[in-house]
């Protein structure tokens, strides 16, 4: 994939040299903008696939500039790119994951209505609403309904954030629960995966397989809440997370 990005950069350089070397007509200039737009879009897609966030941000900015240039072109000669909603949606998801909320809303304000109405953008707006509401189970449920496979990297990052939020809520509300319940609640596919995560949060797992949260964080009353009650209250989270693992 890195080789693909290198070839893409070479293409952009040669295209710029070619178009700058000739006396271009409006038609040629339109072709130049289309090629620049497509190159930036491909850069975004490759960067998402390779999880190269710096490259993604650079190519997303280039795509945005290309969209604006094409829209300003006289006589509506340049049609909108079919990939524009996908690129905009991906970039919005990146901003959401990186908690760049002010930039997220700025991008919404400058995005045209047609693109905003596209399902690939609406999916991200729905995730943002769920996140603001704290509806983490709905975010988990939506992971299996991504509008495009290229969303997977940033969605995985968002799910990590969601998992941390659910863990923090459980840790604040309860003193302990079984390892199996905790594994299901946090959406891990195995107890060993959960144990790695538990160590990262400095949770203790005793010889009976009971997860003991940080005593200074869990409220005293939580020690009296039985596991059965916990399971009934958190079953929705667990079921939704199981669907996506």
Description:
One of its GO terms (cellular component) is nucleus. Pfam families: CSN8_PSD8_EIF3K. With 245 residues, this protein is mainly α. It has a domain at 136-245: Alpha Horseshoe (Serine Threonine Protein Phosphatase 5, Tetratricopeptide repeat). It is 70% helix and 3% strand. It contains twelve helices and three strands; from the N terminus they run αααααααααβααββα. It has helices at 2-21, 26-50, 53-72, 84-97, 101-110, 113-116, 119-133, 136-142, 152-173, 179-185, 191-200, 227-244; strands spanning 176-178, 204-205, 210-212. The chain has a three-stranded antiparallel beta sheet. Helix 2 (26-50) runs antiparallel to helix 3 (53-72) and helix 8 (136-142) runs parallel beside helix 12. The longest helix is centred in the first third of the chain and has 25 residues, at 26-50. It is elongated, with a radius of gyration of 23 Å. Mean pLDDT is 81; it is low at 13-23 and 217-235.
Helix content: over 70%
Question: What characteristic shape results from the CA principal axes?
Answer: elongated
CATH class of the domain at 136-245: Mainly Alpha
Number of helices: 12
Structural class: mainly alpha
Total strands: the figure is 3
CATH architectural arrangement of the domain at 136-245: Alpha Horseshoe
Helices and strands, in order, run as: HHHHHHHHHEHHEEH
Main beta sheet, described?
A: 3 strands, antiparallel
- Computed Rg: 23 Å
Strand content: under 5%
Q: What order do the strands of the largest sheet run in, or round the barrel if closed? A: 1-3-2
Protein name: Alternative oxidase 1-chlamydomonas reinhardtii
Domain PCI: 56-245
GO cellular component, one term: proteasome regulatory particle, lid subcomplex
Family: Belongs to the proteasome subunit S14 family.
């Amino acid at each position: 994939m890195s080789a693909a990005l290198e070839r893409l950069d070479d293409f952009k350089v040669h295209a710029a040299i070619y178009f700058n070397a000739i006396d271009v007509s409006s038609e040629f200039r339109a072709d130049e903008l289309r090629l620049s737009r497509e190159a930036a879009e491909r850069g975004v897609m490759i960067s998402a696939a390779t999880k190269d966030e710096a490259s993604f941000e650079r190519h997303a900015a280039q795509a945005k500039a290309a969209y604006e240039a094409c829209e300003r072109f006289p006589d509506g000669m340049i049609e909108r790119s079919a990939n524009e909603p996908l690129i905009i949606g991906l970039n919005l998801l990146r901003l959401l994951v990186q908690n760049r909320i002010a930039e997220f809303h700025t991008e919404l304000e400058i995005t045209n209505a047609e693109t905003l109405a596209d399902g690939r953008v609406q999916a991200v707006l729905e995730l943002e609403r769920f996140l603001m509401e704290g509806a983490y189970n709905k975010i988990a449920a939506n992971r299996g309904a991504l509008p495009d496979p290229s969303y997977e990297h940033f969605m995985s990052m968002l799910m990590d954030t969601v998992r941390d939020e659910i863990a923090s809520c459980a840790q604040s509300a309860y003193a302990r629960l079984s390892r199996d319940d905790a594994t299901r609640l946090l959406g891990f596919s195995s107890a060993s995966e959960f144990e790695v995560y538990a160590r990262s949060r400095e949770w203790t797992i005793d010889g009976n397989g009971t997860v003991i949260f940080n005593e200074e964080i869990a409220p005293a009353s939580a020690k009296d809440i039985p596991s059965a009650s916990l399971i009934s209250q958190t079953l929705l989270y667990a079921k939704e997370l199981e669907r996506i693992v």
